[in-house]
Design brief:
With 150 residues, the protein is α+β, with helices and mostly antiparallel strands. Helices cover 19% and strands 27% of the residues. Strands 1, 2, 3, 4, 5, 6 and 7 form a seven-stranded mixed beta sheet that branches.
Length: 150
């Protein structure tokens, strides 16, 4: 990143120009629940609101935010997911597997006691990369050998 890189801010993302046509997009956390406690799909239909519904809506909101800056879900390089109940991990992972085509982004899942929107079971934030090529080597660990367990 050059010293001339200036973040461009809007309500749901910060975009940093890395030079050479490359950009990083940092999305704010997306939940699957409205401020009034209702879970609605992108078409506005009210859903039951369990973890699968909230995860599906959160990913749809991420997709919409990325589209506003010219990116897609396949541009995501990092996800951080916050769950209020770790018993929901399998359901979350099932939805996530259906969202991404090809390799999954690097990801962390964190247990939290609460999320900043009452009734929210999940919050997901994302970092996307646009522009110059990035590399991914399937099956190659980024963990230095001295830190690996046998």
């Amino acid at each position: 990143m050059t010293n001339s890189a200036t973040p461009k801010v809007n309500s749901d993302s910060v975009t940093i120009d890395l030079g050479g046509g490359a950009r990083l997009i940092f999305l704010t956390g997306k939940t699957g629940i409205d401020y009034d406690g209702t879970v609605r799909d992108p078409a506005g239909r009210v859903l039951a609101g369990g973890i699968v519904d909230q995860t599906t809506v959160a990913f749809a909101r991420i997709e919409q935010a990325l589209a506003r800056v010219g990116a897609t879900m396949n541009d995501i390089v990092r996800l951080t997911t916050y769950l209020t109940d770790m018993n929901d991990v399998a359901a979350y992972l099932g939805v996530r597997a259906g969202v991404f085509q090809g390799e999954l982004p690097a990801a962390s899942t964190v247990a939290v006691s609460a999320i900043g929107r009452q009734g929210a079971l999940i919050e997901i934030d994302a970092i996307a990369h646009l522009g110059s090529a990035r590399s991914y080597v399937p099956g190659v660990s980024q963990i230095p050998p001295e830190f690996k367990k046998d």
